[in-house]
């Protein structure tokens, strides 16, 4: 079946290149810099492994990211328009980045040469793993034969179900970003307090605290179980993705713990892909962030 539209996402979706290629997703990458001057495309000009290694090797050195430019988006839009495809472009929450503004400008630029190409630029109210799940649901709708408008409308209805549930190993990066005060951060580090954090509707919320890394990881798994039970869902009703920053081995253990817990609570064996969290969120959460992206699956026509 010929696709009715192309799916484009900014790089906050954190989809591995192989996953994006398999699902025919165009990714417009964010830029990352460690000196505020030399910006390179994350995942392309600076591999994620190198990005996180530098963070680990140089603690206290805080990198920055920059949104893709309108030209970056327009280059991808032009290629798809030349194929005769309309475009659904999914962007990180506008509460977190200006990426969507760049995509909207690019859509206007495209109209000069491809006036018949329809482009919908959508604020996902998501980021990172949560946006990964959102974009993959867009592909499922596309592949089921939905029109551009049908897919966009369905996805907008799913936004209220999307969450990021995560914790961090250090409060340094959250403190540096102004989310907590210096004294609170210092006290938290001394007491080994780890926050449980939820991203919902594009905004960050506190979901409790735990003492120590293991308990905070167990706490995040508990947040996922509570989300499912509170909404009368099973894991098969949702697209759930596990993610890690620097330490893949810890990420694998985290995924395995989660699969075991979900089996205890709901039976069966959950499908739980493991992705690496990208630089767009990594600069704010640090190299030891770990958690889930989850969204309820769309009803297909």
TrEMBL record:
Gene3D superfamilies: 3.30.1180.10, 3.40.50.10170
GO molecular function ontology, one term from the record: lipid binding
SUPFAM superfamilies found in the cross-reference section: DAK1/DegV-like (SSF82549)
Protein name in UniProt: DegV family protein
Pfam family, one: DegV
InterPro entries tied to this protein: DegV, DegV_C, DegV_domain_contain
Record keywords, A-Z: Lipid-binding
Signal sequence, start to end: none
Keyword Chaperone: no
């Amino acid at each position: 079946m010929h696709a009715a539209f192309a799916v484009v996402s900014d790089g906050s979706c954190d989809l591995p290149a192989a996953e994006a290629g398999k699902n025919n997703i165009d990714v417009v990458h964010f830029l990352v810099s460690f000196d505020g001057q030399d910006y390179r495309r994350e995942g392309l000009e600076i591999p994620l492994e190198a990005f996180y290694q530098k963070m680990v090797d140089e603690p206290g050195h805080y990198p920055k990211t920059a949104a893709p430019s309108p030209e970056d988006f327009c280059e991808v839009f032009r290629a798809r328009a030349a194929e005769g495809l309309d475009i659904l472009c999914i962007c990180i929450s506008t509460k977190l980045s200006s990426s969507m503004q760049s995509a909207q400008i690019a859509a206007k630029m495209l109209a000069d040469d491809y006036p018949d190409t329809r482009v919908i630029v959508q604020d996902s109210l998501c980021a990172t793993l949560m946006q990964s799940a959102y974009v993959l649901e867009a592909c499922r709708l596309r592949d089921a034969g939905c029109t551009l408008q049908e897919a966009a409308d369905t996805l907008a209805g799913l936004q209220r179900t999307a969450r990021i549930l995560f914790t961090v190993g250090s409060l340094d990066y959250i403190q540096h970003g102004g989310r907590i005060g210096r004294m609170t951060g210092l006290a938290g580090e001394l007491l080994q307090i780890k926050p449980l954090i939820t991203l919902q509707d594009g905004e960050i919320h506190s979901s409790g605290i735990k003492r120590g890394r293991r308990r905070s990881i167990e706490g995040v798994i508990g947040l996922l179980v509570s989300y499912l039970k509170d909404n009368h869902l099973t894991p098969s009703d949702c697209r759930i993705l596990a993610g890690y920053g620097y330490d893949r081995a810890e990420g694998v253990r985290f995924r395995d713990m989660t699969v075991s817990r979900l089996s205890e609570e709901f039976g069966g064996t959950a499908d739980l892909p493991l992705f690496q969290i990208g630089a767009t969120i990594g600069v704010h959460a640090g190299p030891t962030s770990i958690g889930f992206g989850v969204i309820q699956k769309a009803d297909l026509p």
